[in-house]
Amino acid sequence: MNRKLVHSAMACAALLVASASLSPAAPIDPSATCGECHKDIHRMWSASAHARAMDDEIFLEAYRETKSGEGEEVSRQCLACHAPLTAVNADWGLAQKITWEGVHCDVCHGMVSVDMAGPNPRPVLDIGKVKRGPSKEAGSSAHEVAYSELHTTALACAPCHEGSTADGVKVMTTYSEYLASGAAKEGKTCQTCHMGKTRANVVDPKIAREAAAEVNLHEVPGGHSLEQLHKALQVALDPKRNGDSLLVTVRLTNKGAGHAVPTGMPGRRVILDLAVRSGTGAAFEGKRIYTKTFTDTQGTTITRDSKYFTKGLKLEADTRIQADERRTETFSFPLPAAATAHVTLKLHYEHAPTGGPENRTWLTFYSENRTLPPGGR
């Protein structure tokens, strides 16, 4: 997996320190211990952004910048999602190996509820012998198993996908976007799209002879996934002539995502690029950018992920395509009716967490070409 996926998929959410019933002195088994029995599931998880949330130099650079520039109070918000076991072991100095395991198995399977009372959602953790999940039939001789209705809902994802600054400015709003979506009204959850079913061995056949079953995909593909991007937007390109002008209409419909496109950290952008070339050599371009723009106390546009949770943040614009929204973009180019027109539409996904091209993720997830003959539609 591209190491850049980690920073954007699990970026610095403004999550406060979570409640937990386990004392910091109590041992937490490494995820590899879970993998001794649950090999297929552990293999999927190991390839996920969740597993590698702390194993990414781009995130670590942003974390160090945040800690040195904004102070430890703000930097702990980063660790709350990238190293959520700090809520249990209070390892703010990152001295314990277990802290570096990112969104560890026990973070999700030890979650008993989500506290929505404060400015940010907080997971309530009870890490121990009881492992909680969405199956009513699960059983184990190695540990206790409990069915959890929470794990069948989007609320389980809220703690790391909804976050505000210390002074209440909403930065990450994926969960609240979902609540306002048609997907939520239809009963679809985050897991529906991001943890679809796949056949796997729940327990290694060498340990227990059980038939393969349908389990949730623990790779949890997100915003950097081409497959997810392909599903998110329906695109309709309609070029037509109007005398000596070429009119191009592009309709974008967000029917595949139960949240805005893009969502997550504000530094993510979807870019529409339109290019027109004529048989006479004339060339034209059009562009639209869909993103969320914040400025700091000086009015400077923020471009680095390490700055999004500073105090005094101000939302300047939100041009993203909201869930279920149909956006129509129109362009007009001077093009003689006698000239052949070649129209190219491309959609790109971009995330530049450090503000420049050096760590940028750039994916072209849609491309379409049309040719209009002279005088033709």
Characteristic key phrases:
4-stranded antiparallel sheet; Immunoglobulin-like; alpha+beta; disordered N terminus; 377 residues; 11 helices; 18 strands; single chain; 2 domains; 3-stranded mixed sheet
Topology order in helix (H) and strand (E) letters: HEHHHHHHEEEEEEHHHEEHEEEEEEEEE
> So what's the oligomer here?
single chain
Number of domains: 2
Strand content: 25-35%
Number of strands: 18
Major pleated sheet:
4 strands, antiparallel
User: Level of helix content?
Assistant: 10-25%
Order of strands, main sheet, comes to 13-12-17-18
Summed up, the helix count is 11
Query: Which ranges are low-confidence, i.e. pLDDT below 50, for 5 or more consecutive residues?
Result: 1-25
Kindly provide the radius of gyration, computed on alpha-carbon positions and rounded to a whole number of angstroms.
23 Å
* Helix/strand/pairing category: alpha+beta
For the termini, the CA-CA separation is 44 Å
Net shape:
globular
- What is the average per-residue confidence, as pLDDT, rounded to a whole number? 89
